[in-house]
TrEMBL record:
Entry protein name: oligo-1,6-glucosidase
Location of the protein in the cell: Cytoplasm
EC category name: hydrolase
Pfam entry (one): Alpha-amylase
Keywords, comma-separated and alphabetical: Glycosidase, Hydrolase
EC assignment: 3.2.1.10
Protein family membership: Belongs to the glycosyl hydrolase 13 family.
């Protein structure tokens, strides 16, 4: 496998609205990010994935772009963006931008033009269909609930939106539209960005008449055309968000010979605590054996051809320590265990803002505290469907995207040091003890565990390129696997729960083991009989 710079990097996702507010209007901004670059440098990350900072009406917090070439004034100016690039590069931190090109905002000039008439030059930048018997053209539904078709009276046609009606889908069959996208991408590449995270990129090949959303027939043609016309000429990092990816088509995206993307975010592991075939609000207990099967399947599938992304969190997901760890008595231990389990694997790890200090989900008693359009839609939908308020609020606590969007907790000052103004979203009340200031002052904090994991990846080819091998697949409490490179081996062994367990690793009289990292101070050295206390996670080097 040809070595790439992003094989060794750890990527930190910033959700700008909630990261750091420099001018006390209650909204995070670019100057606020610049103020925290030294913190990110200390954590050891080498790449920032910046969620959208472009002009937007913020129906979907920036994933509804109305001008790809300008910065949302609440976040700052293009000068601020240029300064962020300069200051990051001075710290040897790269920046990848969020590329949202499955749809635009309905306030984008292209759509405003397109709506004017059927023969407007921009009409076919979007997807329009005649009514069918006076109704929507077909049954396609929006991922935010309801129909994916919105009626436009002025031209007596429907337009397609797989998200909110304020996010009309772009028509990728239109080559003129695609060229407009290449031009925009090259504008940002020329500014010195280091790559793109591509929002719902598996939807751009959609066939609305056949009601196909994901993995449409021309998807890979468009990606190969994008490669040739934009990032293919540069050494950039590209990661596609592909909710529908399978191990088979993930190879199509990430096999270097195909000249498409470097890797994808697949979400199979993120669907293991919902009732199969239902929506993520229909809760089911996670089974560790299933998690081991899914994560191992992806490690094996993309181990030699293609490349995995590794993540528990992002701005759309609940916080992992509340979801699958223990955000009470064992918050620190379980956060470290989950980090060890993930960062020991083969692939590029992503850390979402606040994950590195063990931030948790927020307990909101009222739907009024939830701001996300998806959350508010599902609340209305479920009330209509007869779910009890209690059931709905429990699902929201466990799965709402808002959990990831409460302001970053910098200190125990008011508003967690995020802002001196009224934050756009409620701060999690536990900021008084879960915050960066406390973490940096505590050598045993989650922060320093992440710092060690990130540093380990930079200097250890065994972690980066070693073959993955799952141990004891049927063990319902312990996740243990090896990483093997020539005659070197790592053993990563994690107690996923709070009941003490034993793990027996086969040894000979010549086997030697040393601890590279543990979330306990005095973990055992005898790997033939390892005592695993609550959430104990250990990385052994074996020779
Ligand atoms: O998300 C894709 C997406 O479908 C998820 O939001 C999913 O619907 C849900 O959150 C989990 O089931 C991307 C962006 O990450 C998200 O923030 C945007 O809202 C969405 O696309 C539209 O751009
Ligand atoms: Ca601000």
């Amino acid at each position: 496998m040809q070595q790439q710079w992003w094989h060794k990097s750890v990527i930190y996702q910033i959700y700008p609205r909630s990261f750091n507010d420099s001018n006390n209007d209650g909204i995070g901004d670019i100057k606020g990010i610049i103020q925290k670059l030294d913190y990110l440098k200390e954590l050891g990350i080498e790449v920032i994935w910046l969620s959208p900072i472009y002009e937007s009406p913020n129906v979907d917090n920036g994933y509804d772009i109305s001008d790809y070439y300008s910065i949302l004034p609440e976040y700052g100016t293009m000068d601020d963006m240029n300064k962020l690039l300069l200051e990051s590069h001075q710290r040897e931190i790269k920046i990848i931008m969020d590329l949202v090109v499955n749809h635009t905002s309905d306030q984008h000039p292209w759509f405003i033009e397109a709506k004017k008439s059927k023969d407007n030059p921009y009409r076919n930048y979007y997807i329009w269909r005649d009514p069918m018997n006076g109704q929507e053209p077909n049954e396609l539904d929006s991922n935010f609930g309801g129909s994916a078709w919105e009626y436009d009276e002025s031209t007596n046609q429907y337009y397609l939106h797989l998200y909110s009606k304020q996010q009309p889908d772009l028509n990728w069959e239109n080559e003129t539209m695609r060229i407009s996208i290449w031009e925009m991408m090259n504008f940002w590449i020329d500014k010195g960005i280091s790559g793109f995270r591509m929002d719902v990129i598996d939807l751009i090949g959609k066939n609305p008449d056949k009601q196909i959303k994901e993995n449409g027939p021309k998807l890979h043609d468009y990606l190969q055309e994008m490669y040739i016309n934009t990032f293919g000429k540069h050494d950039l990092l590209t990661v596609g968000e592909t909710w529908g990816a399978t191990t088979e088509n993930a190879k199509l995206y990430s096999d270097p010979k195909r000249k498409e993307l470097n890797m994808v975010f697949q979400f199979e592991h993120m669907n293991l605590d919902k009732i199969p075939g239902k929506r993520r609000w229909d809760l089911k207990k996670l089974e560790l054996v299933e998690l081991k099967q899914v994560l191992s399947k992806w490690q094996y599938a993309l181990g030699q051809e293609g490349w995995n992304s590794l993540f528990w969190n992002n701005h759309d997901l609940p916080r992992i320590v509340s979801r699958w760890g223990n955000d009470g008595e064992y918050r620190v231990k379980s956060a470290k265990m989950l980090a060890t389990l993930l960062h020991g694997m083969k692939g590029t790890p992503y850390v979402y803002q606040g994950e590195e200090i063990g931030m948790t989900n927020a307990v909101f008693d009222s739907i009024d505290d939830y701001i996300d359009i998806e959350t508010r839609n599902v609340y209305k939908e479920r009330i209509k469907d007869g779910f009890s308020e209690e059931e709905i609020m429990k699902s929201l606590y466990m799965k709402a995207r808002d959990n990831a969007r409460t302001p970053m907790q910098w200190s125990d000052e008011p508003n967690a040091g995020f802002s001196k103004g009224k934050p756009w979203m409620k701060v999690n009340p536990n900021y008084t003890y879960i915050n960066v200031k406390n973490a940096l002052e505590d050598e045993d904090s989650v922060f320093y565990h992440y710092q060690k994991l990130i540093d380990m990846r930079k200097n250890n080819n065994l972690i980066v390129y070693g073959t993955y091998n799952l141990l004891e697949p049927d063990n319902e409490n312990i996740y243990a696997y090896e990483r093997i490179l020539e005659n070197e081996k790592l053993l990563i062994v994690c107690n996923f729960y709070e009941v003490e367990k034993k793990f027996y690793y086969p040894v000979t009289e010549y086997t030697k083991a040393r601890i590279l990292l543990s979330n306990y101070n005095n973990s055992g050295l005898d790997i033939s009989n390892i005592r695993l206390r609550p959430y104990e996670a250990i990385i052994y080097q074996i020779s």
